[in-house]
Structure formats: structure tokens, C-alpha cells
Amino acid sequence: MRGSSVRLASLVLAASVLTAGQTIETAQQAAAVTNLRYHYITREQRLKWLEDSTFGPETMVVGLFSAGFGTARDAPVEYGPHWDGFGKRYGMRLTGVATGNVMEAGLGELWGEDPRYFRASRQPFGGRIRNVMLMTVAVHRRDGSIGPAYARYLSTPGNNFLSNTWRADSEANYHDAVLRSVFGFVGLMSKNAFTEFWPDIEHRVFGRKH
User: Fold this and answer.
1) Which H or E run contains 147?
2) Which domain holds residue 70?
3) How many domains does the chain have?
4) 150: CB partners within 8 A, 6+ apart
5) What's the pLDDT tens digit per position in 104-159?
6) pTM to 2 decimal places
7) What span, in angstroms and rounded, lies between the C-alpha atoms of 105 and 34?
8) Which of 70, 95, 113, 165 could serve as 139's disulfide partner, Cβ 3.0–4.6 Å?
């Protein structure tokens, strides 16, 4: 059963990457229209992205839900179903997120990848959904074109397998590392969706403009 779930998770991740590869050419054409004023990320902006992606409100909220869910399930069992265990789960997730973001920021700097998410607010709803999905596994390059997020492909599984060295024994294994990697991309997609649509919700419901 555990082997089946690992294979399924690996197939989901592989399918996402292949889908990105098949749609990047179309996305590049759209980028030429929607990102006419695109400027490649500066080092200061990359540091700001690293800070926001690690300690920003969206990441912190996801961490609360993740730690709460793990505490309710008492997983990993070594931490226990109490507030102390909640804190340990929250901290453990934060160390993994920070490690992965540092890896992505460093490799992205070397390889010319911009990890920031750019809203597609001028596109129809379907186009915005595609943007959310695509930019989970793709990034902008120095010239504004869109290509595979190679640094992310390495940093997401890399940090999850590396963190096996300091995780509780019950989740420090290949199976859980693969699942955490897949959930990392799912979490990023959810974060992209929030970034894409929350400003519209704020404007329509609360009358706030961005």
C-alpha cells in the first residue's frame, strides 16, 4: 500500500512537469502580451521573495493548518497530540520550507530563474487558472520568457529528502519524503491561487483596491 502511494505521488508530480513542458510554448506567447514591462528579478527582490516565501502570512497560515492537521492525526507519533507537539510540527515544517526556499533562491540565481508569481488579472478565468497551474512548475527567465522551474524541481524534493536527517524516525523515510515533495507542489499551487484571486475578492467584498 505504501509503495502504491509513492508510485502514485511520483506519477502525479511527473505528469505535472510534463504538462508544463507541453504548455510552455503557449505560455511564452501569452507572456509576450501580458508581461511587456517585465523586469528580471534583482538580488534585493530575490531576498525579499525568500523572506516572504518563508515567513509571509500565506506560508504561516498554511503552516498552522498543516501542524494542526498533523496534531489531530498525531503524526508523527513521536511529537504527541498536544500543544507541544503542535509547536514541534510547525517548527519542523518551517525548517523544511526555509531549506527548500534557500536552495531554490540560490540555484535560481545561478540559472537565471525568477521564482516570483505574476498575476494574470487581464486574462479570462480559464487563463488565470492555467496561469496558477503553470507557474507552479514554471518560472520566468531573464528575457521574460517562461521555462521549466529547474531549481524548484531540485529544491522541493531535495529539502524533503535532506530533512529526513533531522525528522522523527516514523517519517524519515523515502515514502514520506516523496509525499511531502508532491504536497509541496500542491501547496505552492494553492498559494498561487490565493495570490491570483484574493485581491479580486478583497475588492469585491471589502472594497479594497490593490
Assistant:
1) strand 146-148
2) 2-206
3) 1
4) 107, 111, 113
5) 999 999 999 999 999 998 899 999 999 999 999 999 999 989 999 999 999 999 99
6) 0.80
7) 24
8) 113
